[in-house]
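Request: Show me your protein:
***
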Amino acid sequence: MGFKSFSGGMKMSQHLKRRILLILAVVFCLIMISSVSVTKETKQEWEILNPEGVIKIEGMKINPHPVTLEGKTVMLRWNGKHNGDHFLERVGELLKEKVKDVKVIKSWEVAPETVEPIAGSQERSQEFAKAISKFKPDLVIGAQSD
């Protein structure tokens, strides 16, 4: 009773389908209502952050650049990254070919302690600069490569 048979199968009556859907809807509503807890209203506090950060820019004096490299000392500074030394080797060769009386010094040969891919701190970078400055270069050319 309540089911009609056709093509060898069973089909539920429209009336029964409506009752089941109504029951499911009521159960769903009861579940949703029970999951909502009634609580006392509380004050919200928000902290707004600026993701740009604050950058303090201080002016600095830049060393004057030489007008020419003739007769000057050029330090090639390599940080130890892959192929940076090859690039600087070529720069040194070109300087010697093109510039009269230029002296080229390779930092990794005369100050191997300065070969480090990541200095890690401003203090460490200053140590490298101090070690390189002992050779009195007029210009330092650095290369970072990968």
